[in-house]
Write a structure and sequence with these properties.
Elements: H1 5-13, E1 22-25, H2 31-38, E2 43-48, E3 58-59, E4 70-73, H3 76-86, E5 90-92, E6 101-102, E7 105-110, E8 114-125, E9 130-136, H4 143-149, E10 154-159, H5 167-176, H6 181-200, E11 203-214, E12 219-221, E13 225-228, H7 237-240, H8 250-257, E14 261-264, E15 269-273, H9 276-288, E16 295-298, H10 305-316, E17 323-330, H11 335-349, E18 355-361, H12 364-373, E19 378-381, H13 384-397
Parallel strand pairs: 15-16, 15-17, 17-18, 18-19
Antiparallel strand pairs: 1-7, 2-4, 2-7, 3-5, 5-6, 8-9, 8-11, 9-10, 11-12, 11-13, 14-16
Helix pairs in contact: 2-3, 5-6, 10-11, 11-12
The structure holds guanosine-5'-diphosphate and manganese (II) ion.
Keywords: ATP-binding, Ligase, Magnesium, Metal-binding, Nucleotide-binding, Transferase, Tricarboxylic acid cycle
EC number: 6.2.1.5
Binding site for Mg(2+): 209, 223
C-alpha cells in the first residue's frame, strides 16, 4: 500500500525525523489560511499523487500554468494562484505514464534554503533478508540514472535484525555523504529514526529524495515516499485509514474486496487462473504466441462460486479485454465449482468476447460437462498450449 508524501512525513515526524512544517489542503479556498499559518516568506506548493518526478512533471491543462507539480511560491497570493491552478488538474510525470494522475490534494510546505541534496532510501534486501539503506550524494536526481552511469556514487549497507542499527551504520552513512561534525551526528540519529520507523510500521520501501542540508547546517527530509507491506497491514489498523482509493485501480479495489489477487496490465487477454505460478506461466505463454495479457487474476486455492463470479465480472468489465482465458488446475479448487462460477457470471453479465476454458484436475469431467451443456459459446481447450493458441487466434481474428 502506498501513501502520500504529506502522510509519510507526518508518520516520520512521530519518530523524530526532521521535516518541514506543512499543511495539506484539498480545496483552493483553503490555500490562504494554510499559507498564513506557515508564515513564509517562501512556501512550496506540492502536488500529492502516488508517483514521483512531480517537480519535472507537466500538467495536461493549459490553465494549470507553465511550471511542474512542485512550485516555489514567494507570496501568499502566489500560493493561492498555484493552488487554484493545480487542484483538479492532471499531472503527467515520468512515473504516471502518459495518462497522468489527477491532483486532488496539495501539500503547502514551509520553503527550505537548500545547501546540498542527497539520496537516502531503505528497503528489504531480498538476498540477505535484511533492511538495507541506500545512500548517495547525488540527490534530487533520478537514482536509476545515477546507478546506471555512476554506480560508485551509491553506497549500500544492511542492518542485522538481531543487533539493529549500530554506531558504525551512522558513521558509514555520514562518510558516504561526506558529512562531518554535527551533521555526521545528525545523519547517525536519522538512520536510527528511519530504521525504527521502517521496522515499526512494516514498510516495504522508504525513499527520501532529496534529503537536504539546509543553509543553516541541518539535515532535513524534503521528500518522502513510503510503501507498506500489505501482508502486515493487519497489524496496523490505523495505517489502513491512510489509503487513498482514488489513487488505486478501480478493478484492483473491487478484487481486494473478494480477496482476489488482481493486477491490471496493458494487453488484451483477460486471464483467470488459480495460483501465482500458473498465472505467471499463463502470462508467458500468451506472450509467446504473440499477444499481451490484460491482467493477472488469481482466484487462489479454494475459491467459492461467488468468488469466481466476482472475478469473471471484473475481467469482463474491462473494455481493454478482447478475449478471456480461464486456466484452472483443480487441486483443492474443484473444476465443477469453477465451471458453475463462470456460467453464473456469463449469465449475469453476458459475454461479448471469445472465452477459452482449460480445466484440469479434480472433478475435471464434471466441470467440462457443465460447460458443454451450458449452451454458452465457450471454446474448450485440452492443455495450456492449446488454450493459449486458441485465445490468441480468437483475439487476432476479431
Ligand atoms: P518529486 O519531483 O516528485 O521528487 O518532488 P520533490 O519533493 O523531490 O521536489 C522536487 C524538487 O523541488 C526537489 O528536488 C527540490 O529541488 C525542489 N524543492 C522541494 N522543496 C523545496 C524547498 O523547500 N526549497 C527549495 N529551494 N526547493 C525545493
Ligand atoms: Mn523527490
Amino acid at each position: 500500500m502506498n501513501i502520500h508524501e504529506y502522510q509519510a512525513k507526518a508518520l516520520l515526524k512521530t519518530y523524530g525525523v526532521p521535516i518541514s512544517k506543512g499543511v495539506p489542503i484539498m480545496r483552493p479556498e483553503d490555500a490562504e489560511a494554510a499559507a498564513n499559518e506557515l508564515g513564509g516568506p517562501v512556501w512550496v506548493v506540492k502536488s500529492q499523487i502516488h508517483a514521483g518526478g512531480r517537480g519535472k512533471g507537466k500538467f495536461k491543462e493549459a490553465d494549470a500554468g507553465e511550471q511542474g507539480g512542485v512550485r516555489l511560491a514567494r507570496s501568499v497570493d502566489e500560493v493561492k494562484t498555484f493552488a487554484s491552478q493545480m487542484l483538479g488538474k492532471t499531472l503527467v510525470t515520468k512515473q504516471t505514464g502518459p495518462a497522468g494522475k489527477q491532483v486532488n490534494r496539495l501539500y503547502i510546505e514551509e520553503g527550505s534554503a537548500i545547501d546540498k541534496e542527497f539520496y537516502l532510501s531503505a528497503l528489504v534486501d531480498r538476498e540477505t533478508g535484511h533492511v538495507a539503506f541506500v545512500v548517495s550524494t547525488e540527490g534530487g536526481m533520478d537514482i536509476e540514472e545515477v546507478a546506471h552511469s555512476t554506480p560508485e556514487k551509491i553506497v549500500t549497507l544492511t542492518v542485522d535484525p538481531v543487533t539493529g542499527v549500530m554506531p558504525h551504520h551512522g558513521r558509514s552513512v555520514a562518510k558516504a555523504l561526506k558529512l562531518t561534525g554535527d551533521l555526521a551526528k545528525q545523519a547517525a540519529s536519522l538512520v536510527d529514526q528511519l530504521y525504527a520507523a521502517f521496522v515499526g510500521m512494516d514498510m516495504s520501501m522508504l525513499e527520501i529524495n532529496p534529503l537536504i542540508v539546509t543553509k543553516d547546517g541541518n539535515l532535513r527530509v524534503l521528500d518522502a515516499k513510503v510503501s507498506f507491506d500489505s501482508n502486515a497491514l493487519y497489524r496496523h489498523p490505523d495505517l489502513a485509514d491512510l489509503r487513498d482509493l482514488t489513487e488505486e485501480d478501480e478493478k484492483e479495489i473491487e478484487a481486494s474486496k473478494y480477496d482476489l489477487a488482481y493486477i491490471a496490465l496493458d494487453g488484451t487477454i483477460g486471464c483467470m487462473v488459480n495460483g501465482a505460478g500458473l498465472a505467471m506461466a499463463t502470462l508467458d505463454i500468451i506472450k509467446l504466441y504473440g499477444e499481451e495479457p490484460a491482467n493477472f487474476l488469481d482466484v487462489g486455492g479454494g475459491a467459492s462460486e461467488e468468488k469466481v463470479t466476482a472475478a469473471f465480472k471484473i475481467i469482463t468489465a474491462d473494455p481493454q479485454v478482447k478475449g478471456i482465458l480461464v486456466n484452472i488446475f483443480g487441486g483443492i479448487m474443484k473444476c465443477d465449482v469453477i465451471a458453475n462460477g463462470v456460467i453464473a457470471a456469463v449469465k449475469a453479465v453476458g459475454l461479448s468476447v471469445p472465452l477459452v476454458v482449460r480445466l484440469e484436475g479434480t472433478n475435471v469431467e464434471e466441470g467440462k460437462k457443465i460447460i458443454a451443456e451450458s449452451g454458452l459459446n465457450v471454446l474448450p481447450a485440452d492443455d495450456l498450449d492449446d488454450a493459449a493458441q486458441k485465445i490468441v487466434a480468437a483475439v487476432k481474428g476479431n
